[in-house]
Amino acid sequence: MLRVLCKTPRLGRFFLGLSVLCLSGGWLTGCNTVNPAWDTLQTTFEGLRPPPPLVPGISYLSVKANGHQAYMALGYRDAVMQNGQSVFEDTWYSGQQEMLVLRDGRLYRAMGMTHEWRRQDGQPPAWSALQAQSTRWQRLRDVMPGYRTAVRDVIDTRAIAAPRANAAWPAAVQWFEDQVTSTHADGRPWVYTQRFAWHPQQGVLYSEQCLAPEVCLTLSPVPTIATQGGR
Amino acid sequence: MTILRRGLQCFMAVVLLCAASRVALAEPIAQTQRLSEWLAARQAAWQSNANDPLAVVWTTPEERQRQQAVVEALLQALNERATHRGDTVAVHVQTLSRILSRMPVTGRMPIAAADPRWLEVKPQRNPLLRPGDDVILPPQSKDVAVMTGSGEICQTLHQPGASVLAYLQACDLNSWTDRAWLIQPDGRIRRVSVKDWLPEQQHHPAPGAWVWLGLKNEPELNEAWAQWLATQPSVDAWPAPLLAPLRRPAQHRVQPLAPTALGHSQFTPQPTSSHWGSAGLLQTPTARMRKEGSFSLNFERTWPYLNGNVYFQPLDWLEGGFRYTSVANRLYGAESYSGDQAYKDKSFDFKARVWRESDALPEVAVGMRDFAGTGLFSSEYIVASKRQGRFDASLGMGWGYLGGRSNLKNPLSTLSSRFTQRQTDVGQGGTLGTSTWFHGPAALFGGVEYQSPAGMVFKAEYDGNNYQREPQANNQLQKSPLNFGVVFKPLRSLDVALGWERGNTLSLGFTIYTDLSTVHMAKVSDPPTPAVALHRPTLPPHWSQTAADITQHTQWRVEQLALKDDTLVVQASQSHAPYTAVRLDKAMAVLHRDAPAEVQKMVIEHRAAGELLASETVDREAWVQQKNQPARAQVPATLAPLSYPDAPASATTVWRAQPTRFTFEPGLDFIQTLGGPDGFLLYQFSLAARMGLQLPWNIQAKGLLRARVLDNYDRFKTPGWSNMPRVRTHVREYFTTADVTLANLSLSQTGRAGRDWYWGVYGGYFEEMFGGSGAEVLYRQPGSRWAVGADVNKVRQRNFAQDFGFQDYRATTGHLTGYWLTPIEGIHASLSAGQYLAGDKGATLTVSKVFSNGVTLGAFATKTNVPAAIFGEGSFDKGVYWSIPFDALMTRSSRSYANFTWKPLTRDGGARVTRPVNLFAETVWLAPDARAYAPVVPADHLPPP
């Protein structure tokens, strides 16, 4: 599903627009069914699509990109050491065999997508140690496509007040912002902002992070639906 | 000798593995397991050793054997060159031969990515390791190696962000070739530009990559050498003696790309539209071509003209298009005829590259504007373009409208004095006007454009036109022959152009563009294909469910399932779709899920015209293996063979479809008329009900009922006129007389007579305007590139209400048609000769280009024995069309196509009836390219070679 989300701008809404035109009529001399066009419209326009059925007992991650929403299922939760602290590394999978790895709520690896993070080396500060004054840290990423190795990101992370639009979060939630200075493939600077809503017990509950200039994601774990019998 | 060489190579492989294993994890595989398991078990050690995941090596005995044959063939090829080429090349070849004989035969197989968590959900990318295999996790390389055609190897430090050209400069190497081979440590190979005049956004060499510059004039040998290097470890892992002659630059450090000095390698020039649709500056063309498959829709306003251009790039050396030009200060016709609608002109263009750019020479193209229209803006030109980095300069010579300044003597006048004068009689339009081509005085034009790092394109040009000689006496004040413009790219696929022209006029344009050859869409709305299990079912199958599931996943009509011994036979009709291999895989997934364990072979019989046309046989075990693990040797993947049996396989039927089936498909239809005097766009939306009834003996009934729901055809007031029987110009009457119409209703039967002859008979209401009866025969051999068909039809004009009645006009029409699927670049052609609906006799030539994703661009022209004066405006029938498979557009699989045909004018000459049967289309399984089309996979997401 992410593949579609990521590709939508690359293909251009031009062709999706063409599809809409096709559904609306014309140019369909050989067309004998409207179902594919209707399905495509549903994929294009979120409001037309019924939400997918989520399986009780399975943890999901809601992933929004370019105005589209998809869900990924939790495959693994591992405890790993980062900056001397034990944090969770969650591995999420889409139905299209794409994989996102979030370490302590931050994007750590991405595979099977239009943009991949093959490897990352960095020591982000612990959420609990962050203050309003920004903390600077660095990470190196190996990125595909393009075989970009050791792409250096300089990140200034600081605590911020809860954004007004998200004021409904529990009081314990703290908000943080990353100011990331990175580079495009052609060497031009790429500066962007990421935001995180972090709960001291539950970890990162919401984040806005960028995989590539073309693909910025809004991530939030979906509360797991209890299985029948409370298992 | 061979034994000695093999011995040496085995020894070198051991040396290399040992060298690599100083810090590498290298293990022979003791028990069968997946690579993901092997990697996961060693992840901690791997990460602590800083090994390079891109350079993970998996070796198999099967691949070693294949590579041994490859190296021997390469050595032989090198020895032949050493014997037959000149002294210098012979020395180089001998050096390469010496290096090759010392290089190890590794047996390395490519790996998609060494990420165990990802590999475990991708079984088809997750190698199944067996005893005898080796896996090596090499240490992180720090270098990039450049190998020249003389065998010289330059090893230099890797620098993140540095381009291939930067490594060449660090090594003081000049490449004789425009493009070098970049071999990444994971074995992927790319040709990348190493010239300033050929900029492109390209991959960076990763640490451990090889760059191969190649030998002059040895394309095949160079490709083979690059593939050989892809099997080798990075240069760090090679013992020094092996690398002689090795040259390591002592002081050279590769410079990374600095933001303020953007290198040549990090942008790909994208030609933008001129005001006339072709790749160019503002008013003038350049020699540049867009990428093959490009399509653009461009609107450009420069008083008093508004151009609407549709442009295609069917071949990488040819672009063409058509346009409507609205002249704001001239009326379409008398006010009583067309109100205040502005004058509309229709025209065709083309441009062809005649010379590719090189180090010293520019790219050169010749082209024509408005060569088959009224000729108001007709121009011919030759233009040259040369690029340096982000600047692209063009200089050309134009005739006609483009050469209006007349500041050059026509150089062709030295051949004949006839070239000094140019006739400007526009006549009825539509004539090719060859007598004016390259005639009259000429003018220089040209300019320069700069593609900025921010993506904007700045343009400056010298215009060759003289606005004091405008057609229709529409002269415009021109203060300066210089025009300036800028193109913004606010969105992908959208350009916005602003210009300042003639020294006094603002221009504005929009271009929507895409690459039709790469259109693709993930099928996220399709039902999930059954997972391919390694085990086979133990319960007896429910064959009716199997048939239903195959239909659901493939859109095939399953006619019958039959069993014989270890073979399951599926008979399917309506089974051809753009992406046949994808559907075969889906059918196999269902069949493997359901078929009894003893079934070893699946035979898919594709039927059409009531006959078996082709069959595909799939080995179940091999297919399951292919879906569950990567191959163990780099042999090209092959589809299940397509065969053309004379008779269906004899087997016991286990399930059979009902012989009589009714289908009903509701939908929406759209009809439009462009460019008429009553309005530029007249449209009609209607509800449509398509019905089909399949009867025994391959008799089919089908019909289409329409109900108008939304249209503006009430504005269609102008009665058509014609000097010929009015077979097509009663458009207004046919689309405005009744709200509910029976667009077609017919009965047909098709079959085969003998091995290669097909026939069809049909009768009923063929289309909106004609009905009657007819027959068609087709001669087509299986797998042949050509076919011949003939049809004859007795038809009668239908009532305007499209009900069951007919008018008085009757016609006999028919054609003899030759079809040719050329072996050249996906080009298809057909030539039909015969009698048309209005009784005129002539021929229709159709040429189309089919891209690998099934998208078709085509053009047609019909010339009959009707004189241009009687035919009316346009002089002869012509048009362009394109067709896009829904499979490429939609998120759900479909056998349908989105089709669009554009004709500048609908006249009565050269009109053909639409028949209910088309045997050439129906027998598509016999075409040699029946399975040639597939979804586009983005180049960056292909598995390693």
Characterize the structure shown:
- The complex is a heterodimer of chains A (231) and B (945).
- Helix content of chain A is 14%, strand content 48%.
- Chain A starts with a helix and ends in a 9-residue tail after the last strand.
- The N terminus of chain A is likely disordered.
- With 231 residues, chain A is mostly beta strands.
- By secondary structure, chain B is of the alpha+beta class.
- In chain B, 16% of the residues lie in helices and 37% in strands.
- Chain B is built from 16 helices and 43 strands.
- In chain B, the strands form 6 sheets. A 13-stranded antiparallel β-sheet of chain B has the order 31-32-33-34-35-36-37-38-39-40-41-42-43. Chain B has a 12-stranded antiparallel β-barrel with strand order 13-14-15-16-17-18-19-20-21-22-23-24.
- In chain B, a hairpin with a 2-residue loop joins β13 and β14.
- The longest helix of chain B has 24 residues.
- The interface between A and B is large, with 65 and 70 residues.
